[in-house]
């Protein structure tokens, strides 16, 4: 199915009015790209990391989608006419309207052309489910379809975790993966010999995706996927906990991790920007977790800590 992607270039003051016009025209929702709001968040330090580009003009862009069916051009014309009337009531900025047709298939699958088999560590390979790959005798293949869940396995934060898992997991290890996303780390742990893996995820869509990936990799006997908020619903003890999240969440999570780890157990924490590394290390120490190893790559860091 085709969709009309319509973007209106406007101001913060007119954003809500333009969004309302999209709703009235039949768009199910809108995307608001507000560079001023992004800069406010950057300046306040609300985000650990932001790779959104800086806007060249500072204007807000409001984008909505209309299905390309009979009458869509009339809907667009009506929307355009109402946008042109806005300056009579408020500062609507340029009011420039652009439209392009996109295929629904492009949204769902366009990113796949950038995602190919990736070797990690000494023997791990992440293979997209739609790609062919013949592994070497020593390689362990994790077949993955991220779907709408976070985690293709290609980001530095994930590869750092996978390398640490490859180093520290022993046959029979019990493990908890906090914020499992697509399930890539839980599956990796099972492939490396972990006997009991609990993969916890809050997002129900990610829970479904992770469950499907666990089945596709034939590790359902070792991996249980559970919906939950971090470790709040977890009562079992584990030899190892892994969390690829962000610094502030890891800092808050540290006492709960210490509580579920067995004596001598390990916590692999990633998703930490270099600038927050010492903050996380300090928080782990307060929770009784001493740093064993730190690795950094592409501005990101992972910490391995042991429960005293």
* Overall geometric form: elongated
Order of helices and strands: EHEHEHEHEEEHEHEHEEHEHEE
Which strand order does the major sheet show? 10-9-8-11-12-14-13
- From the N-terminal CA to the C-terminal CA, the straight-line distance is 57 Å
CATH topology of the largest domain: Rossmann fold
- How many discrete domains? 2
- Counting copies of identical and different chains, the oligomeric state is single chain
Main sheet overview: 7 strands, mixed
Q: Which range best describes the helical content: under 10%, 10-25%, 25-40%, 40-55%, 55-70% or over 70%?
A: 25-40%
How many alpha or pi helices? 9
Overall mean pLDDT: 87
Percent strand: 25-35%
For the CA atoms, what is the radius of gyration?
A: 23 Å
SSE class: alpha/beta
CATH architecture group name of the largest domain:
3-Layer(aba) Sandwich
How many runs of DSSP E, i.e. beta strands? 14
CATH superfamily of the largest domain: Vaccinia Virus protein VP39
Overview of this structure, please?
The chain is an alpha/beta fold and 308 residues long. The chain has two domains: 2-109, Alpha-Beta Plaits; 156-307, Rossmann fold, CATH 3.40.50. Helices cover 32% and strands 31% of the residues. The chain has nine helices and 14 strands. It has helices spanning 15-25, 35-44, 72-85, 104-109, 156-168, 184-191, 204-216, 247-260, 277-286; strands spanning 2-10, 30-33, 60-67, 96-103, 118-120, 124-128, 140-144, 174-178, 196-201, 223-227, 238-244, 261-273, 289-297, 300-307. The strands form three sheets. The chain has a seven-stranded mixed β-sheet with strand order 10-9-8-11-12-14-13, sandwiched between helices. Helix 7 (204-216) links the parallel strand 9 and strand 10 (223-227). The longest helix has 14 residues, at 72-85. The chain is elongated and about 70 Å long.
